[in-house]
Write a structure and sequence with these properties.
extended; five-stranded antiparallel β-sheet; alpha+beta; single chain; 12 helices
Amino acid sequence: MSQTDRLARIRRLLDERRSVSRQMLLDQLEVSPATLKRDLAFLRDTMNTPIVWDRELGGYRIDPTQTVGAQIELPSMWFSDKEIHALLTMQHLLANLDPGGILAPHVAPLVARLNALMGATRHPADEVRKRVLIVGIGKRSTKLTHFEAIGAALLQRKRLAIRYYARGKGEESERDISPQRLVHYRENWYLDAWCHLRGEVRNFAVDSIRHVHLLKTPAHDIPNARLDTILGPGYGIFAGTAVQTARVRFSPERARWVAAEHWHPDQHGSFDADGHYILEIPYADHRELVMDILKHGRHCEVLGPVGLRAVVAEEIAEMAEKHAPQEGLAHPVSPGPSRMREANNQDQT
């Protein structure tokens, strides 16, 4: 057992029990009395852990009244993949939430605590961030000037009067909404809310809210179970109650990656006899699903439903028409499927 493992076990025993006898520590660690003495001294002197001997209890315990300075966590400890992703994602999220804006003073203490947590090992926080990168794709670079007002309405359960820009139509509209919850999805913020203009639950991109005014009128509350029924079952961020199941087949080559990917909590995947991967995904709105299907190009085929297959086929046909060779321009020479496959394999290994 390494010293780091021994120190971790000692600390865990001290945290779990009122006191720990010397003999229990020797038995648990399987070390000599001299090694135990050095480990305890290291925890006291280097890690600022207030370990004391309690004569009445006949064992060692942590005395919080003798803490001098901040306690330091164990050295050389690496986080698990989920822990490091959670820590860096939280820090990335906080840093990009409202940089230099109205929320910065409130966010700064949280960032400082995360820095302290990551810097508690021998690997300082800056070194961890340098060696592990959280890459965000698709973040819209729009300042969230109304984020605080939206948060206040959520917590105070008040309605909001907003002016909203719908990118799909390129139009603005005025409406009152009852905010229900904020969602951070694919690097952008969305607000689930009851729209009093439409009389139904809608999903609003926060960066598309052009103006917001906090009203005194109480918000109309929607139970979480109903929100999940409307917004939760389908694929992606778009809402809908008419849920269908898409069946998408991936080539044996692409299947090696897709089979390990998580597209939806209720997805189902299987391999056929030829090595193709068949992925079944529930969806209520096809827009986001079509985008993710098209990025796989010729390696992906929609088996059903018929309507989804038709939408993808129409999109591909229009793309092919736009990319047809123009008269008078040299047609670029394709590297050929075998060479393209070789390049893709080199990039993805």
